[in-house]
């Protein structure tokens, strides 16, 4: 009877270790996106100015990083990103254009969806268009 008990106990401990190692491996080998700047300041703009910003990011994880989608808080903000896989510790960037329509201060939100462990990631850019 003791042998069966020890065998079952050993199997439970072994299965627990396998379960923990499997989940830990997913965390270690998952890509992780890291942005150089999460809030960009475009400063003071004029209506005729071309307003854009390049968000630079790096894959800090141990798996291929892919950006699936980039959404914005309004139609006046247009993202352009590369959906190819980014290797381990490689850098890339994507551009976000702002079509100046209104005057005053603005804050635009960009949400980046990827296979990163931090997804979704929130970015912002801010600025001011004078009322002249």
Summarize the structure.
With about 130 residues, this protein is an alpha+beta fold.
Task: Walk me through the structure.
InterPro entries: DUF1573, Ig-like_fold. Pfam families: DUF1573 (PF07610). Keywords: Membrane, Transmembrane, Transmembrane helix. It comes from Algoriphagus confluentis. It is a single chain. By secondary structure, this protein is α+β, with helices and mostly antiparallel strands. It has a single domain, classed as Sandwich (Immunoglobulin-like). 20% of the residues lie in helices and 42% in strands. It contains 1 helix and 8 strands, in the order αββββββββ. The strands form 2 sheets. A 4-stranded antiparallel sheet has the order 1-3-6-5, with no helix packed on it. A 4-stranded mixed sheet has the order 2-8-7-4, with no helix packed on it. The chain is elongated, with a radius of gyration of 23 Å.
Q: Termini distance?
A: 90 Å
The first-level CATH class name: Mainly Beta
Portion in helices: 10-25%
Low-confidence stretches: none
What is the CATH topology assignment?
Answer: Immunoglobulin-like
Overall outline: elongated
Rg, alpha carbons: 23 Å
> Beta-strand percentage?
35-45%
Order of helices and strands: HEEEEEEEE
Count every beta strand, where a strand is a DSSP E run of 2 or more residues. 8
Task: Show the helix and strand layout.
Blueprint: H1 2-28, E1 33-35, E2 39-44, E3 51-59, E4 67-72, E5 77-80, E6 91-98, E7 104-114, E8 121-129
Parallel strand pairs: 2-8
Antiparallel strand pairs: 1-3, 3-6, 4-7, 5-6, 7-8
Keywords: Membrane, Transmembrane, Transmembrane helix
Transmembrane segments: 6-25
Pfam family, one: DUF1573
